[in-house]
Design brief:
The protein contains 9 helices and 14 strands. By secondary structure, the chain is an alpha+beta fold. Strands 3-4-5-9-8-7-6 form a 7-stranded mixed β-sheet, with helices on both faces. Strands 13-12-11-10-14 form a 5-stranded antiparallel β-sheet, with no helix packed on it. The chain has a two-stranded antiparallel sheet with strand order 1-2. Helix 1 packs across helix 3 and helix 7 crosses helix 9.
Length: about 325
């Protein structure tokens, strides 16, 4: 780890506290000149580091640039060694994660970006991903799962995002089947799961779990086509909560579920938070439109619905629409 990264780790762990250049130099076993150079580099990267004469340096409590140095200490012990790939701007964290998975075929990893230029949503949709206000993350998973159980990853991730938000903010998000997270009738997050299959033995080598979350409302607001749909976790609230904290909690919550995903215990949490039950939904199969009322979630995360003629049907994947407002 470079002097800059080691220094950032110390500043992140003691955010808001002033540490003298001499103490930092002694701790890292480098010269004070090296500390000054590392501080200058971090400032150029956007970190708000305050310098007080005869006292030292401190990282502003309002600093919220994504960094593995801030996230890693908050992870469960068994996750602390996972590789991080952190970018300022890329087309898509899922796309980048696929490349990394091919190049490093045996390792799980975490991919993050401050901005996505071509963020991916389900069904080929674009996920608006402006800089510094969102969480754009992909987890590279190496599952020891059957193809059947692998379909539960999206459902498990939706529960993990809700649990993390509830723990960090005390807000109460809900889930629109199958992969959208809502708060106050507005979508604040989406999940996109993609599998990398071994064609020789027809097994799943890798699963890419993408999570996009609107942490704060962009300064310029959402594009006109999203204004009536998209929301953010935090609006104009004065809060000390950082994206790094929430990212770490989402990862922790997900892996706790993932380790025992086959037991399906998390499906009860999913049902409690899924707001579509009892509402009239519309969906398409082929060119035909259907109207139905959701009544349950099956053991694979499929949505069990009652059609207009009273027949039951299970939707394993697809898009449903509900008339707004949802409540």
């Amino acid at each position: 780890m470079s002097t800059k990264n080691k220094l950032l780790a110390i500043l992140e762990q003691q955010k808001g506290q002033t540490i003298s250049g001499q103490d930092l130099a002694r701790c890292l076993d480098v010269s004070r000149t090296s500390i000054w150079k590392a501080i200058s580099t971090l400032r150029k990267e956007g970190y708000d580091i305050e310098a007080t004469t005869n006292k030292g340096y401190s990282l502003s409590t309002e600093s919220d640039l994504l960094s593995s140095e801030a996230i890693r200490p908050l992870l469960m012990q068994e996750l602390k060694r996972q590789p991080f790939y952190l970018f300022k701007a890329i087309e898509s964290t899922n796309q980048e994660a696929k490349k990394i998975a091919i190049e490093h075929s045996s390792e799980a990893a975490i991919v993050l970006s401050e901005e996505q230029l071509k963020g991916k949503g389900r069904l080929g949709r674009f996920f608006y991903s402006p800089p510094k206000t969102g969480i754009y993350m992909s987890l590279i998973l190496k599952p020891n799962l059957t193809t059947t159980d692998a379909t539960l990853i999206t459902t498990a991730a939706a529960v993990a995002v809700c649990l993390a938000i509830e723990k960090i903010t005390e807000k109460k998000p809900s889930i629109k089947w199958v992969n959208d997270i809502y708060l106050n009738d507005y979508k604040i997050a989406g999940i996109l799961t993609e599998a990398v299959t071994n064609f020789e033995n027809r097994t799943i080598d890798t699963i890419i779990l993408g999570i996009g979350l609107n942490f704060k409302t962009p300064v310029a607001g959402f594009p006109p086509e999203l204004e009536s749909i998209a929301g953010s976790l935090l609006n104009e609230e004065d809060t000390k909560i950082t994206r790094n904290e929430l990212i770490a909690e989402i990862i922790n919550q997900f892996y706790q579920i993932y380790q025992e995903i086959g037991k399906r215990d998390f499906l009860d949490d999913y049902k409690k938070r899924c707001f579509v039950f009892g509402k009239t939904i519309h969906f398409k199969q082929g060119k035909q439109d259907f109207k139905a009322i959701p009544i349950d979630i099956d053991q694979q995360g499929g949505l069990i619905v009652k059609l207009e003629d009273g027949q039951l049907q299970t939707l394993s994947y697809g898009e449903i629409t509900i008339q707004r407002p949802f409540n």
